[in-house]
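Issue: ligand-bound run for xanthosine-5'-monophosphate - logging full I/O for the record.

Environment: standard queue, default settings, no custom constraints.

Inputs:
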Amino acid sequence: TWTMLNIVEEQVEAIRAQIGEGRAICALSGGVDSAVAAAIVQRAIGDRLTCVYVDHGMMRLGETEQVRRDFEAVFDTLDVVDASDQFLGALEGVSDPEEKRKIIGHEFIRTFEAAEERVFGDAAGGSTAYLVQGTLYPDVVESGGGAGTSTIKSHHNVGGLPDDLQFELVEPLRTLFKDEVRQVGEQLGLPPTMVWRQPFPGPGLGIRIIGEVTRDRLDILRQADAIAREELTAAGLDRDIWQFPVVLLADVRSVGVQGDGRTYGHPVVLRPVTSEDAMTADWARLPYDLLERISTRITNEVREINRVTVDITSKPPGTIEWE
Ligand code: XMP
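Outputs:
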């Protein structure tokens, strides 16, 4: 629509005025918000924007490759950092959900600071360093930045940066809602896999393994998750479902029987939800035949999993993620 085009043109002008001849850096998560924000900034300043994507080793099956393919086609300067050893090493022996988040957040900042060094060099001492963020209007409101609103919670995009990161923020999506961001993304010609990707948490599969995060457990969950997503897509339900986490109960074992043999494996939980904004959510009534296909395939194809369950809790009282 013409209004979305106007927004892009307006933002491009504003960003040119803000950044001038300076350089900017953007952390791409793989999600639509950071991708659209970066695409707008690239329009404004070209290759003076550097995009950084951190592979922390907890992405889904084939996801980093997909992101790399999609993003390399769109962005001139893309820095893919493989930091999986660093992240998984730091998570060794850790089961507590908040502890996991703290460690992952800390490693993100370390990785990003190293990228910042590479991009800005010693320029940080003189000229301003610009950081592009995909902050949306609801993020601004939630963090108390909107006119006449009070602080509900501090969103990680807005209030969560450490004080000693000396950046000036560039936030071209601050007035938009998610559906508008998707319109802008389509308008800019970004690939559908990018524009329509379901939300995925920054800590990735790390908060979908109940228990310690190990490479073996990640492999098991990746296989189950890939089957669930493949079948959801095949059923044509991708866009009706807000998110579809698959959770591995790694510290729980369950008895099963396969052929003549007793098995002692792990359960997974399917957590399909519908939502408008993730603040509240309802459990999705997936068709029984789809659930059956997913269950049969997971227990046949993933040796360590012998039981598939469905989470039928709304939010509240449950959250979307299990951790
Ligand atoms: P919950 O589980 O709180 O999740 O209902 C609401 C939305 O936020 C996502 N989520 C996260 N995103 N870092 C993120 O970037 C996190 O630590 C995190 N925890 C939850 C979740 O996937 C859902 O979209």
